[in-house]
Amino acid sequence: MSNSTDPATPFRARHIYEQVAEQIRRSIVSGEFPPESRLPSERELAIRFGVSRPAVREAIGALQNQQLVMTRRGSGTYVCSPLPGSLPPLPDEKESSSDDSPVSTLEVRLMLEPAIARLAARRGQRNEEAERLLLQMQNVKDIDVTAQQQLWSETDRLFHRQLAVMTGDSLLIRIADEIAKTMEQPLWQRLRDDGIYDEARISLYVAEHRLIYEAIATGDENAAAFYVEQHLKRVGKDITTTTALPD
């Protein structure tokens, strides 16, 4: 008679940024990077761990969310002082609750969203909800204000989802819903807020969203796909590069 046992919980593949964040965290705990000390530059950390600079940026964002480090724009990243009374636990390799890599998310979006915009443009219709979201974005002026951050986060996320709605394809809408969920995750929001740090940058994003929408509404498939691609490339650059981490 065979014994019945519960299947083992499979290990998940850990993101590169999690592994980098864990190594930096261990250096903080060991005293190599004591409170108030400045971390090495982004470039130095990338060389030290043999990873890309965007992976370092994601790791720093994760440590910021754990209140272990803080960034000072134009100066660098510093270990918090004092450190939290109880350090957050190290991630469990069996857990699946970690945030998705924003860089990986953007790679997927770059494959999907230009095609979504192209398909939406084939219908060539204006959309009241998309226009409402654009108007809300225009009302965001100061990203340092928490309420303004939340307004931008919600309207940006829903605007990109609305592009899928404008295709009329239910499967694409479900896919867009999954993408929208990643844009609610703390790590995405941390890097986005750090990347969009002034009124001029917000205005630029609004203008890019307007170009995308107008190309779709007027049925210009090529322009719609092009504007989405250029916008997402800019987002990728902004959230993985920061003036707070000098070279």
Polypeptide structure, described:
- The chain has helices at residues 16-30, 42-49, 53-65, 102-123, 128-138, 146-165, 170-182, 186-195, 199-217, 221-240; strands at residues 69-72, 76-79.
- It contains ten helices and two strands.
- The chain is mostly helical.
- Strands 1-2 form a two-stranded antiparallel ribbon.
- Strand 1 (69-72) and strand 2 form a beta hairpin.
Total beta-strand segments: 2
Shape summary: elongated
What structural category arises from helix and sheet content? mainly alpha
* Element order: H for helix, E for strand: HHHEEHHHHHHH
Sheet with the most strands, sense and barrel status: 2 strands, antiparallel
Determine the strand fraction and express it as a percent band.
under 5%
Q: How many DSSP helices?
A: 10
Arithmetic mean pLDDT: 87
Q: Using the CA coordinates, give the radius of gyration.
A: 20 Å
